[in-house]
Amino acid sequence: MASSVLISDTEPWKDLKAHVADINKTHLRDLMNDIKRSQLMTNEFDGILLDYSRQRATPETLEKLFKLAEAASLKEKINRMFGGEHINSTENRSVLHVALRAPRDAVIQSDGKNVVTDVWEVLDKIQKFSDSIRSGSWVGATGKALKDVIAVGIGGSFLGPLFVHTALQTDPEAIETARGRQLHFLANVDPIDVARNIAGLNPETTLVVVVSKTFTTAETMLNARTLREWISSSLGPDAVAKHIVAVSTNLTLVEKFGIDPNNAFAFWDWVGGRYSVCSAVGVLPLSLQYGFSVVEKFLKGASSIDQHFYSTPFEKNIPVLLGLLSLWNVSFLGYPARAILPYSQALEKFAPHIQQVSMESNGKGVSIEGVILPFETGEIDFGEPGTNGQHSFYQLIHQGRVIPCDFIGVVKSQQPVYLKGEVVSNHDELMSNFFAQPDALAYGKHPEQLQKENVPKHLIPHKTFSGNRPSLSILFPSLNAYNIGQLLAIYEHRVAVQGFLWGINSFDQWGVELGKSLATQVRKQLNASRTKGQPIEGFNYSTTTLLKKYLEASSD
Ligand SMILES: O=P(O)(O)OC[C@H]1O[C@H](O)[C@H](O)[C@@H](O)[C@@H]1O
Q1: Ligand 1 atom, smallest distance to 214 CA
Q2: ∠ CA 483-485-491, rounded to 5°
Q3: pLDDT one-digit tens code per residue, 75-129
Q4: Are strands 206-211 and 405-410 parallel, antiparallel or unpaired?
Q5: Which residues are bridge partners to 110 per DSSP?
Q6: Residues with CB under 6 A from ligand 1
Q7: Which residue is closest in CA terms to ligand 1's atom 11?
Q8: Which of 46, 128, 224, 379 has the most C-beta neighbours closer than 10 Å?
Q9: pLDDT in the model for residue 3
Q10: What is the ipTM of this complex?
Q11: Pick from 329, 440, 322, 308: which is nearest to 41 by CA?
């Protein structure tokens, strides 16, 4: 396909549009009776079972989606990504987060250089540094070991590491390696977040890791200055060198901030912020908490999916299948949202991370060529662990709007409990819901069934479930560091697949800039009004009134 041709102008797209009418004649209740179809719509890789038989799709739909993939040159685009080409064209950068978890002997080129060598240089440095902190050979300014780490960062410099940290917190191996240590995250510039982070912490035993790709993000830099002040006011300015380290691509600004360049951990412009959890952004704080060998397993898990994604035919390729199905749901069936429902409390921060990965990547209005798109891209991602979500927003999913759901389950619990006399173990109780919900959504409940159950006539409409609501189930054998890496990479690549199919640039984020620059104008005004009493100027009536009220009411 010539790159300037929109995917919506291609025959496979039009064919899929027409195919919606065929699917609208079906109901999942009936589709699920076709065992051959169900067999075809399951896939297994490395113990991970993907079941997408509850998608509103048939084998014919899949064939048509594969044709769409061809029309979108999906394979070529994946190859270009792995090949280090500058596929992030608006920033003229490669997109090589896969290199962050590649084995030491792999060769991945960007601009004629094997980046894997640089990656391992930093990983080795992290291992050495985290070992020295953990063993107590590196001590703080007063000679005490550093047991607490505060990772300061926001967006991609926060959400991924928080997800992985939360997922590892209950993993038996990680519990052992984290004993006696605490990892905290400071993201919001709201001073409440600082207060929460430092409550009960002693600067003498605290290490601050400032994480920022650009080292210019206003929130992170103010939070970093606030913690620098917290440390130096208590231990003296010289203590900063022992208590603050940094992760960034901008090592000049790191040094300007007063951090010893030896204590700076680099990454590169070919790592997008939201794809940076496998760089020092995640690896440093996580290694400090859990030790490098646990984090290495996480990287290996992600790498296993990278290999699978790169080399497996589309029919068996988990991220490709997931991406194609999401596109089918969004662009053809017209479902604008996606619920991410892990039946594991350890994955409670997974949906917030994927929100950034997906929505910042694919919420775009123009093609990679800059042509305004006649269709919408991206989806509204949200989610909560099951069963908590069931007691919250599932009502809407069952009887209100149709929202395709990802059910993510785990075979072996990280923390099994089986009480004497109970019918099932606690994990089986949880998983009963994981298995039941997709069928409730797919099959629904008929008025006739309700009649048979002698439900009063006036309640029948209220108790009827239309069903035919799509979902997919992903079952992991366990949830250790390796599996967590796999889960991350599956979703990262799925999002990329969707972007490649829509023909957009999933790796820039210009949409976050406007709000930032308007905040700069407000910041200047607040300073001028507070310090020089200058009147509010240059804002519309609404903002002027709000600012006046804010300044007047907080003038003391
Ligand atoms: O890592 P930093 O440079 O501080 O950036 C932190 C975040 O800020 C921006 O607003 C971007 O939208 C995010 O993609 C990024 O992750």
Answers
A1: 3
A2: 105
A3: 999 999 999 999 999 999 999 999 999 999 999 999 999 999 999 999 999 999 9
A4: unpaired
A5: 113
A6: 154-157, 212-214, 217, 220, 273-274, 360, 509, 512
A7: 155
A8: 224
A9: 54
A10: 0.98
A11: 322
For the annotated catalytic residues, the residue numbers are: 360, 391, 516
Residues in the chain: 556
Question: Hey, whose CA ends up nearest to atom 8 of ligand 1?
Answer: 155
Query: What is the DSSP code string of 346-400?
Result: GGTTHHHHHIIIIIIHH--SB-TTSPBPSS----EEE---TTGGGGTTHHHHHHS
Return the residue matching tokens 């999933």: 506
Handedness of CA 295, 300, 301, 302 (dihedral sign): positive
Q: Give every CB contact of residue 513 below 8 A, 6+ residues apart in sequence.
A: none
- On the question of pLDDT at 532 being above 70, the answer is yes
Cβ-proximal residues to 225 (8 Å cutoff; 6+ apart), any chain: none
CA-nearest residue, atom 13 of ligand 1: 155
Strands (E), 62-215: 109-110, 113-114, 148-152, 182-186, 206-211
**Displacement of CA 101 from its chain's centroid (Å):** 17
User: 356-377 pLDDT, tens per residue?
Assistant: 999 999 999 999 999 999 999 9
In the sheet that holds 264-266, the strands lie side by side as: 182-186, 148-152, 206-211, 244-248, 264-266
On the question of pLDDT at 555 being above 90, the answer is no
